[in-house]
Specification:
The chain is an alpha/beta fold. The protein has a nine-stranded mixed sheet with strand order 7-6-5-4-3-2-1-8-9. α2 links the parallel β2 and β3. The longest helix has 17 residues. It is globular and about 55 Å long. Bound molecules: iron/sulfur cluster (SF4) and FE2/S2 (inorganic) cluster. FE2/S2 (inorganic) cluster binds next to α12.
Length: 375
């Protein structure tokens, strides 16, 4: 592995004049969650309830976000329904003019709460699916009875006609169920299915060996998604996130650092991506002290990897540099030991051998059991 880079802040790559406004914001209302999925990408150390932004603070953030151009708000967690003020928060976001998407496991969404959410104008729900039957789903989510409750919530969503995306995180233990997952999306009336192959950040990294799909599973899932996309055009839309470790080129994480979206943690820390706090040489501002506009345009963290100016070779002279923006900075730190390096997922990266070694090691034996968070 390369040595980590010295602790220094790169010069801002772009100025306010050329930086576009953010389009989407992910608001992590809380880290509290009744489930304990082994693929959770939230950090190992979760924020406690006592540090969470208050109702008023969140609503002010939503107004600031709308003011600088954010259009879509993804209300997430943890489990956002763990916040007692969820309805009030959604109402505040709608009144600020944001399109609201609730990202939920469904646990905690009673019919009465759904009535209230509908009344205040919630526009979209993204429901997670841990597995296609109760046994598998409850084992993966670490929550007995969770699947049955989720199915009740899905029925309530369909009854109300709220647009639904089903979000299935796929890994070694459920990837072979993709056909049934697609059928369920149709049965539940979803308009979109997100087939999101597991990303190894946060808690998920502890479960990498347990969750890593095989190459055969990966090839099959790609083919199945392509076929289903063609077959169900106009009926069910697909978002497909292929597994990083089997890719030739990385994904543009967040569409490029500081280019289209931002993330707010439960305690108000503003991040360019969900995992960015894993990069220790960056300092992240908090909405309690600094206005969102200043953070988006002027903070050192948002400017650190914006655009292409920070890139090393071979990215600098690569024709894909404005397609994937050098991949994921958090993954570069994790696997190459340097957040300024090319994402090792890239087959052109000098550190790509690390991916090959990890795959060889993790495919060598039986997959271990899951490690769950102790809540
Ligand atoms: Fe992307 Fe850099 Fe790899 Fe080119 S060399 S494909 S820009 S990560
Ligand atoms: Fe942080 Fe990709 S998860 S840049």
């Amino acid at each position: 592995m390369n040595k980590p880079s010295p602790i220094e802040q790169p010069e801002p790559a772009q100025t306010k004049g050329t930086v576009p406004p953010p389009l989407a914001m992910l608001a992590e209302l809380t880290h509290r969650c009744p489930l304990s999925c082994p693929y959770c990408s939230n950090p190992l150390a979760l924020s406690g309830k006592e540090g969470e932004l208050t109702t008023g603070e969140w609503i002010d953030v939503f107004r600031q976000a709308a003011d600088i151009g954010v259009l879509q708000l993804h209300i997430s967690g943890g489990e956002p329904a763990s916040r007692r003020d969820l309805v009030e928060l959604v109402e505040g976001a709608v009144q600020a003019g944001l399109y609201t998407n609730l990202v939920t496991s469904g646990i905690g969404l009673t019919p009465r709460r759904m009535d209230e959410l509908e009344k205040v104008g919630l526009e979209h729900i993204q429901l997670s699916l841990q597995g296609t039957n109760a046994e598998l789903a409850d084992r993966i989510g670490g929550y007995k009875g969770g699947y049955d409750r989720k199915m009740q919530v899905a029925a309530e969503i369909a009854k109300r006609g709220i647009p639904l995306t089903l979000n299935a995180v796929m890994h070694r233990h459920n990837m072979d169920d993709l056909e049934r997952t697609i059928e369920m999306a149709l049965e539940l009336g979803a308009r979109r299915l997100e087939v999101a192959c597991v990303q190894f950040h946060g808690w998920a990294l502890k479960n990498r060996a347990a969750l890593m799909p095989t190459r055969q599973q990966t090839d099959k899932v790609k083919q199945q998604v392509a076929e289903a996309q063609a077959r169900l055009r106009g009926v069910l839309a697909f978002d497909f996130v292929p597994p990083d470790y089997y890719a030739d080129f990385p994904k543009a994480c967040m569409g490029g650092w500081g280019s289209t979206g931002l993330n707010i943690t439960p305690d108000g820390t503003v991040l360019p991506c969900h995992v960015a706090q894993s990069i220790p040489h960056l300092e992240f501002d908090n909405i309690r002290q600094t206005p969102l506009r200043d953070i988006w345009y002027d903070s050192t963290a948002f400017n650190a990897y914006r655009g292409t100016g920070w890139m090393p070779e071979p990215c600098t002279s690569c024709e894909r540099k404005e397609i994937d923006f050098g991949g994921c900075r958090c993954q570069a730190l994790l696997l190459a030991g340097d957040a300024n390096a090319v994402d090792p997922v890239c087959s052109l990266s000098p550190d790509h051998g690390r991916i090959i070694d990890i795959l060889a090691a993790e495919m060598a034996g039986q997959a271990p059991d899951f490690t769950y968070r102790k809540l």
